[in-house]
Amino acid sequence: MENILQVKNITMVYPTGVIANKDVSMDVKRNSIHAIVGENGAGKSTLMNVIFGKIHPQDGDVFYKGEKVNFRNPNYAIKAGIGMVHQHLMLAPDLTVAENMILGIEPKKGKIFLDTVNALETTDAVSKKYGMDVPVNKKIKDLPIGVRQRVEILKALFRNAELLILDEPTSVLTPQETEVLFETLFKLKENGKTILFISHKLSEVKKLADSVTVMRDTRVITTKDAAELTEEAIAHLMVGRDINSGRIAEPENPGKVRLSVNNLSYIDYENVQILKDINFDVRAGEILGIAGVEGNGQSELVNILTGLMRPTDGAVSVDGKNIIGMTPRQIRELRISHIPEDRMENGVADIASLEENFIVDRYYKSEFSKKGRLNWKYIKDYSVDLIKRFNILTQSSKTPTGALSGGNIQKVVVARELSSDPELIIAAQPTRGVDIGSEELIHDLLKKARDEGKAIFLISADLDEIIKLSTRIIVIYDGHITKHFTDCRDIRGMDLGPYMLGVKKEEGASGKIHS
Amino acid sequence: MNPLLSSIFSTGFAFAILRVMTPLLFPALGVAVSDLAGSVNIALEGIMLMAAFFGVIVSAFTGSLFLALIAGLAAGILMGALLGYFHLKMKADIILGAIALNMFAAGMTIFLLFLFTGDKGSTSSLQSLVFPSIEIPLLKSIPILGEIFSGHNILTYVALLFVPLFYVLMFKTPLGLRIRAVGQNPDAAESVGINVDKIKLYALMLSGLFGALGGLYLSMGYVSWFSRDMTAGRGFIAIAAATLGGNMPIGILLASLLFGFVNSIAIYIASLNVPSELIQMIPYLVTIIALAIFAIRAQRVKIKVGGEIHEHFDTGDAAIPVADPGKGDS
Amino acid sequence: MEKFILKYFTLIRTLTAILVGIIISVVLIYLISEMPAYSIKQFFIGPLLSKGRFANVIENASPMIFCGVAIAIAFQAKQFNIGAEGAFFLSAAVGTAFAISTNMPTVLHIIMVLVVAGATGAIWGFIPGFMKARWGASELVASLMMNYIAYFGGLYLINYHFRDKDAGYLVSYKLAETAWLPQFMPGTRLHLGIFLALIFAFLGYYFLYHTTSGYEIRTTGHNQKFAKFGGMNVIKVIILAQVLSGMIAGIGGATEIMGLHRRFNWQSLPGYGWDGVIVAIIGRNHPIFIIFAALFLSYLRVGGQILNLMADVPSELVLVIQSIIIILITAEAFLSTWKNKITIKEAERVEVGNESVAQ
């Protein structure tokens, strides 16, 4: 079978200096379903964006239907017959299905008017042709997410897409909707279309794909027929690590249970079950790591633990005290600190000074203010001390935080959260996007906190980080815990991989301590 | 019969409502068109003022009603384009940019008035042409309806005509579809190759066109001269009417009629020692209540769709893209 | 040099905007005036030429400072509340009504009027504040509506209940002398209100930059999610900002009546709320800078009036300058290329410096 798409030796370096694709090559056969798998940060999305003309690589070529192409922007890719279904659907909520379909290529009546009849008919015709039923005259906002996604796919087909790129299409769907999507994709293949999809769920990959490309650490590891690979083999290729390196010294005996999570469930407003019956404990003097591909419910879990969201069901207690329904401040008052996963969104106010960023959770306490009056002199000394202790590179404590480098901004966040004398630290992606030096510093600080008897709950998509730091590890997949590793001394990435990717699952796994 | 009631039920009163409504309906449609594109336009006040001024000046100097119309429309469209330039290109906050444009119009019209006429006071010594009033042949002879609906200024009919026209433009043309798409989800519009900034600019220019007609009516229909600040806040009332009307043409017409009704009543009863102020307050009260209801309903829908229990819920994104007035960057 | 420019960039940018505005005004005067040199002199130094004129500058600045500080507090919380206009007007009317209906010894009378006016303004700020914080309703539209309700409500109160029918035009009764803010300079109308305005500017500054509540307001304005993450109750903070904003505008309204007019004599909105927006923008929402911005704007206005009277240029020239200055200050793109160039230069310099240290 001929190749519809060939990618040859793509190297993509972002202006920030981050290398996202290194010498990537891949062939996609016409009229096949082709999966791309890889951990977070392996370079999958970058590759898709290169193919779609959104970004332009430093090196390498893309061949589409045998011809070398260099799409200036996505519109050229669309014209050439490539369609992309984004994770965040690109639909206007108050427009009808038909209106969304024809947006940008509107059929006209008498040169001025919109041909609504034509729009409805063509939408209907396209949906009939591919056997994908959609209510053509309904507004997008009134449709369930699975149907919206179908509209998005039809939109691409209507623009004569022959190659459809889907970015984690099942991550927002219910299991039933996922089934329907699979049927759709098979039908499209029968119709001669080629489908390229990104996924983290290996069972889906096995079920759907004819061939699989595995990416790891910005490179393509292999492209093989799906039939040749077992799920375990794919997981192994994705995670790759056989050795257990750099694990830092083992902890003393952990103490009593600080954080206890029981039967926690969360259903979001699209009616998708994000968390299912989560159970775990975190003890003083230990680091409990939660491994998992991003988007499997970790963010929601953290938001619930810190009072930013409420669960649908279940209980969370800290030192035996129920914290559900407490405000973020009440929870912080229980000596819980929180390193958020997105520092720019939640962790800092970038136009405010370092001083103002250091005190956001404690400005009302008596050292920092008396009778509502801020003690700036003390705050300054305090900030200068934090800057020194946490080795933050800045001109002064009055510098706007946004002027610092990413690593230093993260150090500002970590300095604040570790200096509040917490008993429980919830650390989400604590070293994401920071330089090696900052990463080591932050790891040392977390280890030190653990040795001082703090309880630490570590959420990270970086397996090395999880393995390096954790006393115990739980693995989350699709909103539930699939495995609990109590002894992590000799654990390897490949032990975690199958559980992270839904290949293996231990029934009734929980992170509870059974003593 | 009570003199108030007898005035209200007179055909003259109904006639007056339509007259007073006209310079509100135009700019309200203008507010709605840019709102649907996702940009709040509070510059209608300045747009109307500029159009009113240039209409009068050009008509006085050329004696051509047609040229006056063109000049007024051009002034309004240019103001809309200018706001678009400041906002989209210079990255000024659209609200502050509009406030500046309103000031600019208030200043520039008087300034130019002086330059052209030597009159730096309020009214122009120039005699302006006016747009003609029209008797509608058959309608005219129907007893009550004729008295109410016939004999209006042509621009009043144009305004009424613009209600269905607005609907057609926004809902039955590709441009309208694109404007609404841009307002609802600019990323979606961009993903199908639509130039979002261009569409927003068009919407602001359309907004300027609608506002210009309102301004022309004021100086060349309602009266026949230009005077300082003659818009008297109608550009802002238009925001109320568009809000109350939910940015939909029929709703805007009804809201404008309400404002027209109340203002006409105020004129009628001023002599009767009845507190007209309280009556004039009503539409604003209604608007603020409507605003609250719209907001609550929007939130309910979100929560209902969600089933999510939000204890510390988001204050959400306002209907208005708020820049950071603290630093002047958005 | 680069360092200096970067540190004071905002100030330099503001001053450049003002300079451009002034240059354009000179050009416009040359275009329009028969005696440009005389006109320019009258415009720029006219306000300094007599005690009365200079007093006018200060007298006009007072309500601008009140409204500027009021607007700045809302803007600092990132709330587009432009309701200072309504709060100012209605509080002046309610304050007048209260002053006329009560009998008190002088200092107490003044204080009580200020309290009543402040409370009126606070309620006026609360409504849009609550609607925004609780329901997400646009505070811009809400406060705009509130302006009109205040306008008609204030007129109703004065015209139907406190109108002085002997005055021959629509004004309230005169306030009892116990409720007068003293005018302290003979030959001018300068009154204690300017000191009250300065006090409120300093209080506003102190509140925003030295109290926990002010910190909460600024942090919520900087990044609402961050404020929530840190444990602040952003709903309360947003409401507080708008309540205080209304209160200060309200006190400003009563001050004008008690100090300058001694009776309520407005039949249209006096426009100080919009002036407040202008001086808040020029003063970058900092109450101390707002004092200077208000003096600047007031100086321009008085200059414009002199121009109108003494020369052959309409005072609306000032509006044109104002609008140009506002646009340049709010347009992010203005001077941004220049700044970026300097930033890169400075970054390179620092990098080179660091390397040499490292070696």
Structure description:
Chain A is α/β, with parallel strands linked by helices and 515 residues long. The longest helix of chain A is centred in the middle third of the chain and has 16 residues, at 175-190. The mean pLDDT of chain A is 89. Chain B has 14 helices and two strands. Chain B has 330 residues and is mainly alpha-helical. Chain B has helices at residues 3-8, 11-36, 44-62, 65-89, 94-117, 137-141, 143-149, 154-172, 174-184, 186-191, 196-222, 234-244, 249-269, 276-306, and strands at residues 133-134, 152-153. In chain B, α3 (44-62) packs parallel to α5. Chain B has a single domain, classed as ABC transporter involved in vitamin B12 uptake, BtuC, CATH 1.10.3470. In chain C, α5 (84-101) crosses α11 (234-261), α8 packs across α9 (212-222) and α12 packs across α13 (287-310). Chain C is globular, with a radius of gyration of 23 Å. The two termini of chain C are 26 Å apart. The chains are: A alpha/beta (515), B mainly alpha (330), C mainly alpha (359). Chains in contact: A-B, A-C, B-C. At the A-B interface, α2, α3 and β8 of A face α9, α10 and α14 of B.
The profile of the biggest β sheet of chain B is: 2 strands, antiparallel
Distance between the termini of chain C: 26 Å
Q: Identify the quaternary structure here.
A: heterotrimer
Unreliable stretches of chain B (pLDDT < 50, length at least 5) are 304-330
For the residues shown, what is the average pLDDT of chain C? 89
- Strand content of chain C is under 5%
**Broad shape of chain B:** globular
* Overall domain count of chain B: 1
Number of strands of chain B: 2
Radius of gyration of chain C: 23 Å
- Report the principal-axis shape of chain C: globular
- Which architecture name of chain B does CATH use? Orthogonal Bundle
Give the class of chain B from helix and strand content and strand pairing. Answer: mainly alpha
| Alpha-beta classification of chain C | mainly alpha
Give the strand content of chain B: under 5%
Order of SSEs of chain C: HHHHHHHHHHHHHHH
